[in-house]
Amino acid sequence: MKIILREKLCIILVFCLALTPVSLAMGETTLYILGLGKNNIQYQIFTQAHPGLNVEIESNIFLSTNEMVNAMLTGEFPYDTFVITSGSFDVKQMLVKGYCADVSDSSVLSSELGKMYEPIEQLLTHDGHIHGIPSYFYMGYYTYDPDAWAAAGLSEEDVPTSFDEYLDFLEAWTERIKEEPEDEISVCNLFDCELYGEHSYIEYLVDPLVTNYIMQCNYADEPLRFDTPLFRDMLERCQRIGTDLYANEPEQKAELGLFYDRYGMRELTHLVPLRMTADQPILIKATLNMICVNQRSQHQELAREYLETCVACIEPEVGAYLYRDAEPVEQPGYMLSMDALQEEIDALEQKLSDSSTTIEPIELNTMQDELAEKKLKWEEMSTSEERYLISPADLELYRNYGDCLYFQPPSIFDPATEEGQNLRQLRDGFSTGNLTVEQFISRLDEMAWILELEESK
Questions:
Q1: Which of its termini does the chain have fewer beta carbons within 10 Å around, N or C?
Q2: Among the listed ranges 71-85, 238-252, 307-321, 342-356, which one has the minimum average pLDDT value?
Q3: What does each C-alpha distance from 222 to 211, 214, 216, 456 come to in angstroms?
Q4: pLDDT by residue (tens digit) across 172-199?
Q5: Position 1 pLDDT exceeds 60
Q6: What is the end-to-end Cα distance of the chain in Å, rounded?
Q7: Is 294 found in the same domain as 242?
Q8: Euclidean distance between CA atoms 155 and 147, whole angstroms
Q9: For position 8, what pLDDT does the model report?
Q10: 88 to each of 65, 161, 357, 431, how far by Cα in Å?
Q11: What is the pTM of this model?
Q12: Are 1 and 8 in contact (CB under 8 A)?
């Protein structure tokens, strides 16, 4: 129901915006929007509400904080509103340094943000002021595979709840397959077969170790230091366990993998938290695209109205991840399919009950069987989880983790980015034995020191 109300709000907003007085002459005003296509409903509704306004849009967005800031400082950034993503931009830096305008005066934006999960609200605000609204959300996490778990005779009590316990599990698993090799089950079955080798599992373990160690340090607002007993111990264990895993899994098994990276709500039931120790908070790495108003925009009021349009028209599936009071989201066309099936059932029942119609026994049996099948199908469709993009069970589960969302700032420690090339090289050097534990830790601390110097400028 709440999703439907938001869709109605999207329609009502057209009327409200059309009545909003704008001081500038529309025919002489151009609003520049970055990160949007003309097929978006937000663009269509906003331009319908302002028929005399010139709206110029650019779908391509800037790729990093420095790229955008440099364009702003050199006067090469004409946009009144723009999109940034937490995975590529240092959002807090953008807010603290005043590149994103304060839009707290909007009662619509204040009301909507107040309904969202706390980590999302915190990302979009600074010193209690709102500086943006969400437009897209993504989260990813590590899980165990229930099929492989069952095949291995494992129970939920065996599921690790921290990276420390995860390494304990892998050590026990290695000992197990030494004694009783598994023909179909491996820890991970997603390696490239041509590249799989003695260093694969070390890389596989080092990446999440570094990533989750950094997340916990950042979350606790602690200086990033790798030369600690905790990190050193886990790094040594990753090296030893990775070596032993390959020795006991010299060939890839295509059948079952014990662990996978997942996304979306549904697999949260199989979450394996990769916090370092069980006394640390569970953090689920997430990414948010947010729309902001340029602090230098000459059309602040119009830009805020555009943000109001966008927040009112958030896609229901995205909204389910943002709002604490979100409702289930059905598959597109689900109700049409149910209605069409019900019409077929009604037609068959009507034909069977029509006393004026003579039906041959064979045809009668066929029609009765068909009716029974359609009723069974209707019942299955009405109760199946597949009717939902976001089911009631998904939402109930997600609400337990909504406040565990964590938006990791981009840095030179992200191996998936261009800036993370040095980390990838260090990881590869350590995994292949060209760097010792001491050398790897020392290089990581050098990178952390460089990062601190850059952030202090």
A1: C
A2: 342-356
A3: 15, 10, 9, 15
A4: 999 999 999 998 999 999 998 888 999 9
A5: no
A6: 49
A7: no
A8: 11
A9: 45
A10: 7, 29, 69, 27
A11: 0.84
A12: no
Residue 337 has pLDDT above 60, yes or no: yes
Token representation of residue 244: 């032993």
Q: How confident is the model at residue 12 (pLDDT cuts 50, 70, 90)?
A: very low
Q: What are the angstrom distances between the C-alpha of 364 and each of 115, 214, 354, 368?
A: 56, 70, 12, 6
Quote the CA–CA distance of 294 and 329 in Å, as a whole number. 33
Q: Residue 54: which of 36, 33, 40, 71 has the closest Cα? A: 33
Reported confidence tier of residue 335, pLDDT bands at 50, 70, 90? confident
Q: Are residues 117 and 173 in the same domain?
A: no
Q: Go through 384-420 and write b for each residue having 16 or more CB atoms within 10 A of its CB, e for each that does not.
A: eeebbbbbeebbebbeebbebbbbbbbbbbbbebeeb
Q: Which amino acid is at 272?
A: V
Residue 248 contacts residue 176 (beta carbons within 8 Å): no
CB-based contact 299:101 (threshold 8 Å): no
From residue 20, give the alpha-carbon distance in Å to each of 40, 56, 119, 145, 352. Answer: 22, 21, 32, 53, 59
Kindly state the tokens that stand for 331.
């598959």
- Comparing C-alpha atoms, which of 228, 84, 248 is closest to residue 175? 248
- What is the CATH classification number for the domain harbouring 124? 3.40.190.10
Residue 192 is part of which domain span? Answer: 146-257+411-456
Averaged pLDDT for residues 107-136: 96
Q: For residue 337, count other CB atoms closer than 10 A to its CB.
A: 13
- Give CA–CA dist 210/218, Å, rounded: 12
User: Pairing state of beta strands 133-144 and 284-293?
Assistant: antiparallel
Looking at the structure of the chain, the number of domains it has is 3
Dihedral sign, CA of 106, 107, 111, 114? positive
Check: CB of residue 142 under 8 Å from CB of residue 275.
no
For the chain, the helix, strand and coil percentages under 3-state DSSP, each to the nearest 5: 50, 15, 35
Tell me, yes or no, whether 176 and 132 share the same domain.
Answer: no
Give the list of residues 6+ apart from residue 269 with CB closer than 8 angstroms, or none: 397
Strand partners, 262: 141
Give the Cα separation of 154 and 272 in Å (integer).
Answer: 14
DSSP state of 424: H
